[in-house]
Write a structure and sequence with these properties.
The protein is elongated, with a radius of gyration of 37 Å. It is an alpha+beta fold.
Length: 510
């Protein structure tokens, strides 16, 4: 009767909520969609080249090489890849729960000798002689199965599938972050290198102006004040160099971490160069709704909620009785009998019900705790969506405004360079004092630095746009989640079967 009841109830729908994608705020178009720098055409689809390898838009071979090396060697990405393999194995465990949970093959051999000094034994042997030395051999198979009446095991499989898909999405998100960070650090390095070159150029120019002031002082044309003012400006500018060199080395060290290598290799790997600039100033950002499909952190947040939704059903199953079937079959014989004789067959089958009726308070609280965790992840998904919208909008407005700044600063640099020429000529001619030279040289240095910063901001905001749109993770499609040498080491260390092979692109969450 228990077996029949369990079989009938096992066809019931699993307990707990069936997951549906949570509602989230929806944007119809970007605020900056009509700016000269953005296009809302669907140019950034999952298959479009600008998103898949957006860094190639900068047309910088060194940047392309750095991205490839980071993808191959970054250790944080390998941590995310290992979690994908762990989730694969955990999904296999969840599938295993659908079958008999306890399965064992065993055997034993025992010998028992009864003492003949016991009075009852002696008395019995006097009437009926019997052997006091017993040897028994047996082998058998035992199994126990909890019928999935309330769908706990099925919910476990759903949770495992969603967790695996979430770990894949987390890997993709780590890849998006990695490509964006490599590009941002690289842009910073090039900006610092340009800052050094500008500082050296200004130091040379200021040295020439200081020499003029010294000559005029030596000839009695001017006072020592001009000399000391020129030396003050010159040494203040020279003092900028050590700080910029320190920042440059620290940026190289940060890049080395992203590449999974040592800082000593950075100088030869990078060389020198200019701040990378995109080949086109127009960015096709697509429509906001595409973020829900493209950004891996949004997918991960949704899948984490799906995995937790199944946990609610698993907790609810503890409120109801558990139907347990167990059985064993084997062979048993004494030492003087043939163990593998059909007459030596032994078996046992049993069915039972277990109901934790006295633990209802704790079980209900566990259901409530799992449901609260589910609600937390729903809010996390919604927050991830609105944060994604904000990140893209911030990057777009930053990109548009930084481009405007570049235009103004470019004109400022040209004007400041001309001002320096005029100020020095007038000072040499004796029509102006040295303070005008100081002002012109200081303004030129500031204008050069501001232009470099604005150009770097344009490139950095463009990187932020692509990162915000969820570009870059597509390069891992069709590839393993860990480098081949790491997979070979794991395969040598542990029998992974086929779990180290490429996972299908989609994992159902139902």
């Amino acid at each position: 009767m228990t077996l029949c009841a369990a079989g009938a109830l096992a066809a019931c729908a699993p307990l707990g909520p069936d997951f549906v994608r949570p509602n989230s705020p929806v944007m119809n178009q970007w605020i900056e969609a009509n700016s000269p720098s953005a296009s809302q055409s669907s140019g950034l689809t999952a298959r479009s080249e600008p998103v898949v390898e957006w860094w190639k838009n900068f047309n910088d071979p060194t940047l392309n090489k750095l991205i490839r090396q980071a993808y191959a060697q970054n250790l944080s990405l390998q941590i995310a890849g290992a979690r994908v393999l762990q989730a694969r194995a955990q999904l296999g465990i969840a599938y295993g729960e659908l079958f008999p949970q306890s399965q064992a093959v065993g055997g034993s051999a025992s010998r028992r000798v009864i003492s003949e000094n016991l009075d009852p034994i002696r008395e019995i042997r006097e009437v009926v002689p019997f052997d006091t030395d017993f040897t028994t051999n047996q082998i058998g198979f035992d199994a126990t199965w909890e019928a999935d009446v309330w769908g706990a095991q099925r919910r476990g499989v759903q949770s495992g599938k969603a967790n695996l898909a979430a770990q894949v999405a987390n890997y993709d998100d780590a890849l998006v972050t990695l490509t964006g960070d490599v590009a941002a650090v690289y842009i910073n390095i090039r900006a610092l290198q340009e800052t050094l070159r500008v500082a050296q150029t200004n130091i040379k120019l200021q040295q020439e102006a200081a020499d003029i002031a010294q000559i005029r002082f030596n000839n009695g044309v001017t006072t020592e004040l001009d000399v000391q003012e020129s030396l003050t400006l010159l040494n203040n500018t020279k003092a900028l160099v050590p700080q910029v060199e320190s920042d440059l080395q620290q940026a190289k060290n940060a890049l080395a971490v992203l590449l999974g290598t040592t800082p000593s290799k950075m100088t030869s790997l990078l060389g020198t160069g200019r701040i990378p600039a995109a080949r086109s100033n127009i960015v096709s950002v697509g429509v906001p709704a595409e973020l829900l499909r493209r950004r891996p952190d949004i997918r991960a947040a949704e899948l984490e909620a799906a995995a937790q939704s199944a946990q609610v059903g698993i907790a609810m199953a503890d409120l109801y009785p558990q139907f347990i079937l167990s059985g064993s079959i084997g062979l048993q014989a004494s030492a003087n009998q043939n163990l593998f004789n059909s007459s030596g067959t032994t078996s046992l089958a049993s069915a039972g019900v277990v109901w934790n009726v006295l633990n209802y308070g704790r079980i209900k609280d566990n259901v409530r705790a799992q449901d609260a965790a589910y609600q937390e992840l729903i809010a996390n998904y919604q927050n991830t969506v609105v944060t994604a919208y904000s990140e893209v909008e911030n990057a777009m407005v930053g990109y548009t405004q930084a481009r405007k700044q570049v235009g103004f600063y470019d004109q400022s640099v040209k004007a400041s360079d001309r001002s320096v020429e005029i100020a020095i000529d007038q000072y040499q001619g004796g029509t102006q004092d040295y303070s005008r030279v100081i002002d012109a040289l200081s303004a030129a240095l500031r204008a050069d630095a501001d232009l470099i910063q604005a150009r770097a901001a344009v490139s950095n905001n463009l990187v932020a746009i692509y990162k915000g749109l969820g570009g870059g993770w597509q390069i891992r499609q069709g590839r393993e989640f860990l480098p081949s040498d790491v997979l070979a080491e794991m395969s040598y260390r542990t029998d992974w079967g086929d779990l180290l092979s490429q996972d299908p692109e989609g994992a159902s969450i139902r």
